[in-house]
Amino acid sequence: MQTTFAIIKPDAVAAKNTGKVIDRIEHEGFSIVGMKKIHMSQALAEQFYAVHSARPFFGELVSFMTSGPCVLLALRKENAIAAWRDLMGATDPAKAAPNTMRAVFGTNVGSNATHGSDAPETAQTELKLFFPELV
Ligand code: IDP
Ligand code: MG
Question: 99 is in which domain, residue-wise?
Answer without folding.
Answer: 2-134
